[in-house]
Amino acid sequence: MTKQILTRSAEQKPVIRLARSGQLELSRPLVMGVLNVTPDSFSDGGQYFDADAAVERGLIMQAAGADILDIGGESTRPGAEPVDEAEEIRRVLPVIEAIRKQTDTAVISIDTYKAGVASAALEAGTDIVNDISALRFDTAMVEVLRRFSAPVVLMHMLGEPRTMQKKPNYDNCVREIGEFFDERVAFAESHGIDRSRLILDPGIGFGKRLADNLDILANLREFKRFGLPLLVGASRKRFIEMIHAGADRADDRLGGSIAAAVMAVANGADIVRVHDVAETVEALKVVQAIRTTR
Hints:
alpha/beta, globular, disordered N terminus
């Protein structure tokens, strides 16, 4: 089985070792495309709930330059109710299987905190687990990650999706997220998950006020002390509308989303998770060209 190696430079850079085989190189910022197979996600809920529509969307995002396709079957918007494991598997598995039948080069991430969903997705050919709970919600997840040697995104969140935006409060948001990562990285390593399989996400919009989101984006380099890939997902989130009142609908937040992605990369992000793949890829190609000009 051949895995695409994603790099534009011979310079040695950190890599993400994938579950199936191969690796993602971080010699340039990577784009993770959001694929919600849900009826109720905050931005595109219902648009790709049909499996055929989701597969088509995934292939379009790959063709547009997405380095990773992040497939999720449960909305984690503020106030969202949980979905049972069987239903989540029913939603995502046909999409993963169909995409994998059509392309072996797509790098697929499963957006779930449930061990059973992650296991089924990895069996079907997924490469990465994106766990918004940072391994806190399902104690069996660490065993699944070990069994498949799968990389995992550890994301910071206050509480759970149903409660996270009910008056979140920090004394020092960036410092407290760093302390959370200290504990979660230690937990993962103590449970047999190799450090080379860890990715950190500070959780923009997950139990954060506007000031917290801006503080995170401005101070991302504080998290580079871990020496781990850093993922940021600010795309279409409500904090953009708080800054620009004309962006009341999620799909009207393209300009703010691209600005957030560009600033995230400028401040140290290795991966940006986005809805608007083609536009973000274009923006980051310009950023990368400027960065590499001598």
